[in-house]
Design a protein that fits this description.
With about 150 residues, the chain is α/β, with parallel strands linked by helices. About 45% of the residues lie in helices and about 15% in strands.
């Protein structure tokens, strides 16, 4: 568990409910302070931009928090989340990608594709995302500042 992560916010649209509930269970077992931002009913359609807005609002005043956002493809929630200046979201399919995105780009939100990823692999991606540091070298900070 990364002690530098204050809280993990997690949100999903209706297609991501099953994966979200699995990740909440696994993160709780790993000792993370996890906040479920919904939705919890896979039978009620919800628009993924609204889920991204909920996550972005929750993370606004908590720079040490991280976010997990899930939809069917992962792309919709990633695009919607990146509209917010304080969010740096990447869609990840492998733990190495999640680790590299944290290290190089200081991502604070991981987007997952519920329709395309095995749940165990998704958890490995989330672990890598939460446990990986950002390389706070001058050049990386300069680059992140240009996108934030």
């Amino acid at each position: 568990m990364n002690k530098n992560v204050s809280r993990v916010y997690i949100a999903a649209d209706h297609r991501g409910v099953g994966l979200k509930l699995y990740l909440i269970e696994m993160l709780a077992a790993a000792g993370y302070n996890t906040v479920n931002l919904g939705v919890d009913d896979p039978n009620t359609s919800v628009d993924y931009p609204d889920i991204a807005a909920t996550l972005a609002d929750a993370m606004l005043d908590e720079p040490e928090s991280r976010g997990i956002i899930i939809c069917g493809t992962g792309a919709g929630v990633m695009i919607a989340a990146n509209r917010y200046k304080h969010i740096r979201a990447s869609r990840c399919n492998t733990p190495n990608q999640a680790r590299d995105d944290r290290f190089h780009d200081d991502t604070n939100v991981i987007a997952l594709a519920a329709d395309d990823i095995d749940i165990e692999v998704a958890f490995l991606c989330v672990q890598a995302f939460l446990e990986s540091p950002f390389d706070a070298s001058e050049r990386r900070i300069r680059r992140v500042q240009k996108i934030s």
